[in-house]
Design goal:
By secondary structure, the protein is mostly helical. The protein contains seven helices and two strands, in the order αααββαααα. It folds into two domains: 63 residues, Winged helix-like DNA-binding domain superfamily/Winged helix DNA-binding domain (Arc Repressor Mutant, subunit A); 76 residues, no CATH class. Strands 1-2 form a two-stranded antiparallel sheet.
Length: 146
């Protein structure tokens, strides 16, 4: 399940994606537009900054903006930064693989096979949807196909 922290991160990034890439927005502006708690949002934006998705400037005229174009930031990147692995089980995770403690045989595990398909479907959708695509209500795959 998507955490509230991740949902707020996506909301904030979408606000920034709607803006001119050169214009910096204050945390208070973003919080007000999306009705988000300012203190929590500050911590989220710091984490997004550390991970290279937003840039910031302190002081007068400071604020936050996207660090790269909105079409290069995917929902999958944000979810992984905020919530960790997309996989419902660690044994099907691509980036955070860990064998299940109680697994007798991964190759014949029916649960693992189903959860791998679930992970792949989630990853395909989240990694295939950029901020720009979400704002235009079109997935990246649909953009590439046209």
């Amino acid at each position: 399940m998507l955490s509230q922290k991740c949902k707020y991160a996506l909301q904030a990034l979408l606000v920034l994606a709607r803006e001119n890439s050169e214009e910096l927005l204050l945390v208070s502006e973003i919080a007000e537009r999306e009705n988000l708690p300012k203190k929590f949002l500050e911590a989220i934006l710091l984490e997004l900054n550390r991970n290279g998705l937003v840039r910031s400037r302190r002081g007068r005229g400071g604020g936050y903006a996207l660090a790269k174009p909105a079409d290069l930031i995917t929902f999958g990147q944000v979810v992984r930064i905020m919530d960790g692995p997309l996989a419902p089980l660690s044994c099907v995770s691509v980036n955070y693989y860990r064998r299940c403690d109680d697994c007798k045989d991964e190759q014949s595990c029916e649960i693992r096979r189903v959860m791998r398909r679930v992970r792949d479907a989630i990853a395909n959708e989240l990694d295939g949807t950029s901020l720009a695509a979400a704002l235009s209500s079109t997935t990246t795959k649909e953009l590439l196909a046209s």
